[in-house]
Amino acid sequence: MELAEGIHGRSASSTSVRILAAAGAVGTAVGAGVVAYFDPSKSTFIPVCPLLRLTGFACPGCGLTRGFHALFHGDIIPAIDFNLLVPLWAVVFGWIFISLILLAIRGRGLPSAWLTRPAVLTSLLGVLIVFGMLRNIPAWPFTILFP
Q1: Total number of domains constituting the chain
Q2: Quick check: 77 and 90 in contact, CB under 8 A?
Q3: Cα–Cα distance measured from residue 101 to residue 109, given in angstroms and rounded to the nearest whole number
Q4: pLDDT-based confidence at 46, cuts 50/70/90?
């Protein structure tokens, strides 16, 4: 209960929760730094989507790593070209990252009740499923969505 209260901003969190939040923020920053520094199209240690490699079908997340690499370098149009949902994920990841930093510093994160509501999660799942299906239709204009 303590972790949930700290994340939702109702009460100060324990030291262990704050340390975990700091570790999560540092891990997220390091991961973002790796994606920003290494070009996923040329790096061999960044994995390729297993679904795309095995079946030729693009999952809803295909192109996100390349999209975030482009976004970190200020290339907004190529980022969206890799994955149309990059702006949505940038908002979600940014919200979580800032919330982790605030939780680590002051013991309360950003109010995130909206993010965990069943309606929001169901809508997000629906968007991912529809996007995943549309981007695999081999006809124009859906081919634009393929990474």
Answers
A1: 1
A2: no
A3: 7
A4: confident
> How long, in residues, is the chain?
147
Cβ atoms of 124 and 116 closer than 8 Å: no
pLDDT tens digits, residue range 62-118? 999 999 999 999 999 999 999 999 999 999 899 889 999 999 998 888 887 777 788
pTM of model > 0.70: yes
Q: Which residue in the block uniquely carries the two structure tokens 């693009």?
A: 58
- Report the half-sphere exposure of 111 (CA within 13 A, side-chain side): 3
The answer to whether 135 and 145 have CB atoms below 8 angstroms apart is yes
> Structural domain of residue 49, as residue ranges?
2-145
Q: Taking every pair of C-alpha atoms in the chain, what is the biggest distance, in angstroms?
A: 54
Please answer whether residues 40 and 114 qualify as being in contact, where contact means their C-beta atoms are separated by less than 8 angstroms.
no
Q: Which of 116, 131, 93, 92 is nearest to 8 (CA)?
A: 116
